[in-house]
From TrEMBL:
Organism classification: Bacteria, Bacillati, Actinomycetota, Actinomycetes, Kitasatosporales
Name under which the protein is recorded: Peptide ABC transporter ATP-binding protein
Classification via PANTHER family: ABC TRANSPORTER RELATED, IMPORT ATP-BINDING PROTEIN
CDD domains: ABC_MJ0796_LolCDE_FtsE
Domain of life: Bacteria
Gene3D superfamilies: P-loop containing nucleotide triphosphate hydrolases
Keywords carried by this UniProt record: ATP-binding, Nucleotide-binding, Transport
Keyword Cytoplasm carried by entry: no
Keyword Transport (UniProt): yes
An annotated GO cellular component: plasma membrane
Location of the region described as Disordered in the Swiss-Prot/TrEMBL record: 257-280
Length: 280
């Protein structure tokens, strides 16, 4: 079976560490004539200790993939594992616990609780789970994100960049197995966005965390180890050790393929549109 997303990193010198895995992952919304196939039999391995970016045109299925891998959305067919745990088929209560204990989330809209201060927002997931934060780790996160003098501020008293840094700290505070970030830099100016990306990068390099980030921004994707490109609900390409320019060039080909008239019969596919070994 093909495992395109892990392929560049699974040579024999690498320990086989898969943080999340999907096989035949299919997600349809609606029914009958209005059915939308958001994910079409996706096979993917998310390698542990790596920073993976997910890109693709609007509507290609990026958020749906993230939500299904994180157990936030049910699947129509196929299987999803978090580590060794198959999450497809788990009851909602078990899923809630698994998300709480093993996954960190960062969303574009921050999702901070307005009545709690920054520190309380950071530790909320652990408070709910009845866990004590690792103080040294939390202090390190706070200092690295430059939030030391903002801990007592409520979200409304923070800038957008500071709010996103609090959301970043919250995702990292419990040292989750896997961090899912959906457009984490979407609402930030470029300096604050770079800071958040730098911190996610450090979390992977220095702390061995695993990050999956959905983004529209080639520069943001350039901070990752591997970019997965989605098109029409399928993984159509991937790029290891990406640069912002290379990602931008690859994204332009989506524009061309969507704008171009249908190719005449017999025209060969554009090379590279599908990773080698990926099943049709
Ligand atoms: N709750 C839903 N009900 C119906 N259709 C949905 C729902 N959520 C997503 N879709 C459809 O599924 C497809 C994939 O959506 P998804 O949000 O995953 O794409 P995306 O690549 O994240 O898009 P964007 O970049 O615009 O955020 C789209 O055609 C979308 O309209």
């Amino acid at each position: 079976m093909s495992t395109p997303a892990s392929a560049p990193f699974t040579d024999s010198s690498e320990p086989a560490g898969i943080a999340a895995r999907a096989r035949g992952l299919t997600k349809a919304y609606g029914s009958g004539e209005t059915t939308v196939l958001a994910l079409d039999s996706v096979d993917v391995d998310i390698t542990r200790g790596r920073f993976t970016a997910v890109m693709g045109p609007s509507g290609s299925g990026k958020s749906t993939l993230m939500h299904c891998l994180a157990g936030l959305d049910s699947v129509s067919a196929g299987q999803v594992w978090l580590g060794d745990t198959e999450i497809t088929g788990l009851k909602e209560r078990e899923l809630t616990r698994l998300r709480r204990d093993r996954i960190g989330f960062m969303f574009q809209s921050f999702n901070l609780i307005p009545t709690l201060n920054a520190l309380e927002n950071m530790t909320l997931p652990m408070d709910i789970a009845g866990q004590r934060p690792d103080r040294d780790w939390l202090e390190h996160v706070i200092d690295t994100l430059g939030l030391r003098d903002r801990l007592k501020h409520r979200p409304a008293q923070l800038s957008g960049g500071q709010q996103q840094r609090v959301a970043c700290a919250r995702a990292l505070a419990a040292k989750p197995e896997l961090i899912f970030a959906d457009e984490p830099t979407g609402n930030l100016d470029s300096r604050a966005g770079l800071e958040v990306l730098g911190f996610l990068r450090d979390a992977v390099d220095q702390l061995g965390q695993t990050v999956v980030m959905v983004t529209h921004d080639p520069s943001a994707a350039g901070h990752s180890d591997l970019v997965l490109f989605l098109g029409d609900g399928r993984i159509v390409d991937e790029m290891a050790r990406p640069t912002a320019d290379a990602v931008l060039e690859r994204m332009k080909r989506f524009d061309v393929s969507h704008a171009a008239p249908a190719a005449p019969p017999g025209t060969p596919d554009v090379p590279g549109d599908r990773p080698s070994g990926q099943q049709s």
